[in-house]
Amino acid sequence: MEGLLQLNTFSPHRLLQPLLFHQKTLPMVKIPTGFSTIRRNCGNMERNDTVDFRNVDSIHEQESEMDWELEFLGELDPLGFQAPKKRKKREQSSRLLEDTNGMDWCVKARKMALKSIEARGLTRTVEDLMTVKKKKKNKKKLGKKDKISRKSKVLEEEDADSNEDIELKGVNPLADADHLRRTVGMVAGGMFEEKKGKTMEAFVQRLSQFSGPSDRRKEINLNKAIVEAQTAEEVLEVAAETIMAVGKGLSPSPLSPLNIATALHRIAKNMEKVSMMTSRRLAFARQKEMSMLVGIAMTALPECSAQGISNISWALSKIGGELLYLSEMDRVAEVALTKVEQFNSQNVANVAGAFASMRHSAPDLFSELSERASNIVHTFQEQELAQVLWAFASLHEPAGPLLESLDNVFNDENQFKCILDRETFNYNEERVVENDGDLVMEESSGSPDLNFNRDQLGNIAWSYAVLGQMDRVFFSHVWKTLSHFEEQRISEQYREDIMFASQVHLVNQCLKLEYPHLGLSLRSDLEEKISRAGKTKRFNQKMTSSFQKEVARLLVSTGLDWVREYAVDGYTLDAVLVDQKVALEIDGPTHFSRNSGVPLGHTMLKRRYITAAGWKLASVSHQEWEERQGEFERLDYLREILKDHIV
After folding, report:
1. Residue 277: what are its φ and ψ, rounded to 5°?
2. Is 489 helix (H, G, I), strand (E, B) or coil?
3. pLDDT 10s digits, 36-95
4. Listed residue (636, 645, 638, 610) closest to 552, CA to CA
């Protein structure tokens, strides 16, 4: 009965572990010391044994007769490398393994594995793993006093030999470990990799089950815990604990699409609440738990509601900004296309705003968003309308249906009002932010009257200028409404005032240059006020990148009289030939979409304006510049793009 109990406690994974033998039957084995080895008879080893070097030569002569297959089959003791004291202790604590050494099935299994090795052609590889190359040393008979000094000298030589081998052979322990892992996986018939793959597949499958039976109480409790968490770290901790519980078998899973979207949204909202720095957000986003949560969100995306898609896209834009989540936003665009018809005005504004803030182009999605917005344009709040127009302009996406619908619905000048009360402005902003977090929101059906604040009017006017649609009815009403702010003080001490003034100044310049027949340019006194604030350097410090410096240095080699940082109305040109009126723009990565490389709205507006002002414009793309190697290729590139503009 005792034997049966011991047999039942033998775990299958010990099949590939080395077998242990009784000391009486142990043959000659190797004791590795560094990169050299000494063979000893473990059967006659006692605690106080000393090495007799007289037998070393005869032992080395038998090494060539030893076969690595004997070690693999268990006929050589793999514990021979340990000191007698440690080996004896381990042997005493492994009685169960000793009793299993005589099992014929274990030996047969090893023989079958050996045949598998030979069939796979891995004999040489495993032989290298099972054997260690040795250096033969000629030993002489030593006296008792000389043995001690000789032993220390041998150890020093072996250490030196070890270092020498490492330097000459360039041993890479990590590479060896990877090689050993792959070899063992193949020797075991791939069962380790297969088991790992099955475990991972089961884990992912459990996390991906968003349909079927559900526990409403668990989902409600999880949602409550997520909402009550006060920081982004606390929200992530709650989500991570649930993910691990589901991975270990918690069923049904409380990770509903609603809770996943809520978790991401609350993480982003808590980041916004404390104005978390960009570097801290990026570090947070790169955590393993955060990556798991985002990955699950991408899997659950098709099961999410329109509001869930809106929340996830908004959250990703706040957490990762324009540096992360490239493939994730492609996934959002793909799924959002299938549910655009379910979007309300807030969903349209949030999704469009998320893509624009991340500089992520999605032409197909924006085409559908424009159609959807045109159908529900009367339901848009003022902030939502300003945001969606800014998004289309930022990515320079056409918005024909939306603009046409705005002209038709808001064709009366009396529908436009401006808000000067700061409290009302704050209330509107707070209401919109809270709506971002609501997981269920009814579509509003407010009156078509629009009560804009100053910044909203500035964003809308700038958007129409970028899109080149300043002859629209809606724009004319917005621009005329701006004239009510002429009595409002615009201070050069506040960033909001400067941003507003810069936008209005650019729009006014475009009206004077491109649409003088409309007669919509500002009066001279207001224009001077706006222009003075818009040109301030307080919040508009121009930074010169290394890319710009490198291009400017090579421009000297052209032999032309280039002038750097030349001002034209509200713009600054990177380099110009004043006498020939040739402008060269050095456009870095921020001038283009991060995924398609298409120029963004602000870049297109500047190019159009400079061209309309009579300048011959050439631009150096950062991507094309990086494709050229060396100064000669880049100088040829500069000459190529300038040859059509220079006389």
Report:
1. -65, 155
2. coil
3. 444 444 444 444 444 444 444 444 444 444 555 565 555 555 555 444 544 444 444 444
4. 638
